[in-house]
Amino acid sequence: MDTLAAMRARRTAHRWQPTPVDDAVVERCLEAAHQAPCHKHTWPWRFTLVGPRARARVTALAIELKTGGRPVHDKQRAFLVSQFGNPGALVVVSQVVAEDAERAREDYAACACAIENMMLAATAQGLHAKWSTGGLTRHPEVRTLLALPDGEEVVGFVWLGEALELPSVSRPPVAEVTRSVP
Fold first, then answer.
1. 84 falls in which pLDDT band (50, 70, 90)?
2. Nearest to 62 by CA among 137, 115, 12
3. Torsion sign across C-alpha atoms 24, 107, 172, 159
4. Which residues contact 117 (CB under 8 A, 6 or more apart)?
5. Which helix (H) or strand (E) holds 81?
6. Which of 13, 16, 20 is nearest to 119 (CA)?
7. What angle do helix axes 74-84 and 52-67 make, rounded to 10 degrees?
């Protein structure tokens, strides 16, 4: 698949087949991510491949956060497990945070580019992806589960796998989001 076709085809999946993703496919996605532009060549991204035991704990924590600790009905648990536990692979992207605020901002942008490269590589290989942020990424227990060193922050969880369904997206025409200045 060429790059423009991958960009047009890429969609964020929310529901997944419980099908594993081949390690070679994940490796190609990581290689693509590592090709992202990076001002000052700081290479601030770190990739954590989350195995089954850690993934089960992350899924349990996600369910706890989503439900506020309230009892979970079987149907709700199954839905949340399908969101967090079913995607074939989970890569957590973290950033080595620079002390200089401007550099940290540029490094965050580089990490975002790395994530987009990873998602495009997944699309080009016939898979789908989701970049997930929010409370789970900032939860202190996630740092422990992932053995993140001090000075690193989670930028997002990237789920890779076969989607059960894909949303359709209506974008405004590019002319509506473009301006020219003389």
1. confident
2. 137
3. positive
4. 32, 33, 35, 36
5. helix 74-84
6. 13
7. 130
The residues pairing with 158 across neighbouring beta strands, listed in sequence order, are 91, 131
Specify whether the CB–CB gap between 118 and 89 falls below 8 A. Answer: no
Distance of alpha carbon 122 from alpha carbon 110, whole angstroms: 19
d(CA 30, CA 160): 11
Residue 152, SS3 per DSSP: strand
**Coil, helix or strand for 96?**
strand
Where residue 29 falls among pLDDT bands split at 50, 70, 90? very high
What is the CATH superfamily name and number for domain 3-11+19-50+88-163?
Answer: NADH Oxidase (3.40.109.10)
Q: Is 121 a residue whose pLDDT tops 90?
A: yes
pLDDT in tens, 160-173: 999 988 888 899 99
Cα separations in angstroms, 111 against 37, 67, 73, 101 = 9, 30, 37, 15
Residue at 141: amino acid letter: E
Count of C-beta atoms within a 10 Å radius of residue 109? 15
pLDDT of residue 83: 77
Looking at every residue in the chain, the average pLDDT score rounds to 92
